[in-house]
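Rotation project, supervised by the postdoc (A.L.). Task for the rotation student: set up a whole-complex structure prediction and record inputs and outputs verbatim in this book. Inputs entered:
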Amino acid sequence: MKGEVLDDVALLMTTDDVVATAIDDLEAGREVDVGDRTLVLGEDVEFGHKFALVDLATGEDVVKYGEVIGRASEPIAAGDWVHVHNCESTRGRGDLEIAEGGESA
Amino acid sequence: MPPTFTGFRRDDGRVGVRNHVAVVPTSVAASGVASRVASEAGAWARATPHQMGTTQPAETREQTERVLVGVGRNPNVGAALVVELGTEDVDADAIADRIAGTGKPVETLSIRECGGTRAALRAGVETAADLEDAVGDARREEADASELVFGVECGGSDATSGIAANPAVGNACDRLVEDGGTACFSETPEFIGAEHILADRAADDEVRERLLAFVERRENLARMMGVDIRGAQPSPGNQEGGLTTIEEKSLGAIAKGGTTPVNGIVGYAHDLPVGGGLVLMDTPGYDVESVVGKVAGGAQVIAFTTGRGSTTGNPIAPVIKVTGNPKTWAKMSNNMDVNASTVIGGESLSAVGERTYEKLLSVADGEPTEAERRRLEEFAINEIQPNEIAELGTGVRP
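Outputs recorded:
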């Protein structure tokens, strides 16, 4: 498989990534060994969903596959579930352009 | 030595992997009769019923005609019957003439001229049977893998699509390209956020510029309408499967095309070259319309990756279902052909890619897919919307 398996339960696609993908249904409080540190999940993370490996401030890039997949729409702590509630796309945003007076989003 | 398969060599040199008689309606008004003709004629007949009306704006009509002609010209079709009500802008004789350019037998049927549906049905079944008599005894002969045009599609994506199924199919694409064939993936909305990676792989400046222009046009449509593309991308189902943004979906989606240079990009339902390496097609994200675009472009076999599970097929090209989700494999194995979820358990991408490539060759050789066994044959033509017509006036033309 592409990427590196973390503790049998998650997948890190590249070393630049700030999120990992759960390959099992994981419960809040679960400890995941990431390299030489241990992360504690703040929330349940279902199979296929992502959790943060580092703290992210609002507006900071969310990186998976070594590429920007969006930005944090609110502060995200390491171990938090990362999904549509706290990570937003920066592309195809006709709604933002109207709000920003025609500027490219 | 490159692998071979056996197929039906047509007069124009292309090789079919199936030998259907296609029953092609020119509008929704003829679709019912076309479906009935095909189902009453026999298992060798395949209808392509669709939703397009009898009157269409010029740009839309041109695209509809290109799809109907392309479907008839697909090498999996041995002969074609074009059915019209008789009031359509799309003229059955003109479609038939363009299909006949391949040298295959083609007939037309007008429901009005026959005197209504009952007479048309009788005449249609009879004509289809005559066409089958003309081509039904064709025998398979050996062909080279380089003669395969392989279309790849994804639908019902989840996080496993980008991790397992798409990279596995991409590996099969790399193998086919190395053996001299053509692989094609599409769904331009799913290039958004990953287009810089594809542009870097473009074979030359022209391909790069066309690719970026196609992506910009799709994104502009969202801008023009003042909508947030997130309303549709990723879809609610994608989101449930763990995909958060269009960028994330796209980065996973482009993995299904493999890693070879992007040799070209063609418009919706335009001809795909034989022996062309990796070629993209500009299609919408709606998977049934997208598959039909590639089949109209000449793809003989489609691989369809799905994380959440999809049942869709196509009347003309066999559709191989590949899933990277172990739950979907377990729950929907009667709709799935290749289990790529083993990647998550540790099987190498190269090994799953090899299995996928072998499946492609054996399906080309005649092995039915699960969708074919169940006669799942969805068909739809992409309808160019009025706002797209406006955008086409200023944007890139295929």
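Student's summary: The interface with chain A takes residues 158-160, 162-164, 167, 189, 192-194, 197, 219, 222-230, 233, 239, 241-242, 244-248, 251-252, 307, 325, 327, 343-344, 346-349 of chain B (CB under 8 Å).
Supervisor addendum: The first helix of chain B runs from residue 28 to 41.
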